[in-house]
UniProtKB/TrEMBL annotation:
This is Core domain-containing protein. It comes from the Bacteria. Residues 19-121 form the Core domain. Transmembrane segments: none annotated. It comes from Zhihengliuella salsuginis.
Length: 124
């Protein structure tokens, strides 16, 4: 029975899905970072938390856990996880990766953000 329980936990099709999109470029960057770490058990977690000048900040980090209420989507083998409290704030958001002379990093385009601060690190 233990194998069945573990298979059910690992089966992302039983978990709710979210509406966050991950671009092909961002998915490739996540895959590259995971390969550098030598970890195949990690997922990209996207969260919204109180903070910053405008009230809310984004958090992107690798996580091995699936928590109660998490929503999951797979993008070419990269699992993106959003906690149940962040799902309403991130519906329709898209994550991309920029690698230019002026900027390198993940960007989030969120249609739910009413505005952001001057530094662009937080939103409301």
């Amino acid at each position: 029975m233990t194998a069945t329980t573990n298979e059910s936990i690992a089966d992302a099709t039983e978990l709710p899905a979210h509406e966050v999109q991950l671009s092909d470029v961002a998915a490739e960057k996540v895959r590259s970072l995971l390969e550098q770490e030598g970890r195949t058990d990690l997922r990209l977690r996207v969260a919204v938390q109180p903070g910053g000048c405008s009230g809310l900040i984004y958090q992107l980090y690798f996580d091995e856990r699936i928590l109660d209420g998490d929503a999951v989507r797979d993008f070419q083998g990269v699992e993106v996880v959003v906690d149940k409290m962040s799902v309403p704030y991130l519906g329709g958001a898209s994550i991309d990766f920029e690698d230019t002379i002026s900027k390198q990093g993940f960007t989030i385009d969120n249609p739910n953000a009413g505005g952001s601060c001057a530094c662009g690190d937080s939103f409301h």
